[in-house]
Amino acid sequence: MKTQHIFNIVENDLKILNHNLQSMVGARHPILSAASEHLFSAGGKRLRPTLVILVAKHTLGTKEITAPHRRLAEITEIIHTASLVHDDVIDECITRRGVTTVHSLYNNKVAILAGDFLFAQSSWYLANLDNLNVVKTISKVITDFAEGEVRQGIVQFNSYVSIDEYIEKSFYKTASLIAASCQGSAMLSNLSRSAQSQYYTYGKHIGLAFQIIDDILDIIGSYSNLGKPVGSDLKNGNLTAPVLFTLAESSDLQYLIENEFENDDDIDTAVKIVYKGQGLQKAKDLAEEHIQAAIGILPKPNKHSEDDSLHSLIMIGEYILQQIH
User: Fold this and answer.
1) DSSP 8-class letter at 46
2) DSSP SS3 for 33
3) Residue 45 DSSP one-character state
4) What SS3 state is found at 96?
5) Measured distance between the N- and C-terminal CA atoms of the chain, rounded to whole angstroms
6) Cα separation of 117 and 215, whole Å?
7) One digit per residue, pLDDT tens: the chain, 325 residues?
8) What phi-psi label fits residue 157: left (phi over 0), alpha (psi between -120 and 50 degrees) or beta?
9) Which PROSITE patterns match (predicted)?
């Protein structure tokens, strides 16, 4: 199976999702409405709703998913987008997904309110799923986002952060939502608690791998495929896997970080140091470990099985790795 097939089998579902997102976030205030529409028109990978849909198709054993599953996919994308709005204010990003960020287009106050509005909308739709366990699972994610931001904020430019601390922060900021949304989809399919936990663990490892690859792209990517300047995380003092691995072999990089890139060309110098070291390969190896852990959780596909959704859940890992090729 080619990785593009992953999205082919959910193509119609994502079209419905994109259409529904526009109506779901339609605010009474024109600026909030414009800010919301601006965000969703920028697109994005739609990885989170894709996973919800794939888990639904696989666990239901059918190509058609239920209305609650579809709504959960939409809720996860709204929550994710709300977190990006707040992230962009904190990180002072000018662009996201190749378009101007909400706070740059309007101001910080509007951006914060737009993010709050999206979180509120997601909570309302979540409550209307009438499934208390799903509500509990997904609502905790919003707390995790805040936890992740605080953890990230208090260790900026700290060259002594461990890989374990980085992974924990990455869980709160990224993997938590992916894990919870996969589990929520399994819950809506009325799977056993042990099976629900399996999909949670699958989503957790996929989410961590996704974040690690995203952090590698911050070093090696281009503006065109990132939609934001290269080295943005590094410039903000957010030390990611490739940087942390490189720190073990480069005192020059440690010096630049501890002096918070005081010279204009320090970021470029730091990126080159990471690029030439072993940190990028070690980070990729770490991402692959999490992908293998995720695949190991899933049921083994039958050679003669035509369960495209299961094969797609397996191939998601390969798709994530392909982002750095």
Assistant:
1) -
2) helix
3) -
4) strand
5) 18
6) 28
7) 566 678 888 999 999 998 888 778 765 666 766 666 666 665 567 899 999 999 999 999 988 999 999 999 999 999 998 888 877 677 667 765 566 777 777 777 877 888 888 888 899 999 999 999 999 999 999 899 889 888 988 999 999 999 999 999 999 999 999 999 999 999 999 999 999 999 999 999 999 999 999 999 989 875 445 556 678 889 889 999 999 999 999 999 999 999 999 998 999 999 999 999 999 999 999 999 999 999 999 988 766 566 889 999 999 999 999 888 6
8) left
9) POLYPRENYL_SYNTHASE_1, POLYPRENYL_SYNTHASE_2
Kind plus residue range of the DSSP H or E element containing 100: strand 99-100
Give, for 283, the enclosing helix (H) or strand (E): helix 279-297
Q: What are phi and psi of 177, to 5 degrees?
A: -65, -40
Domains located in the chain, CATH noted: 4-322 (1.10.600.10)
Q: Please tell me the distance from the alpha carbon of residue 250 to that of residue 273, in angstroms, as a whole number.
A: 8
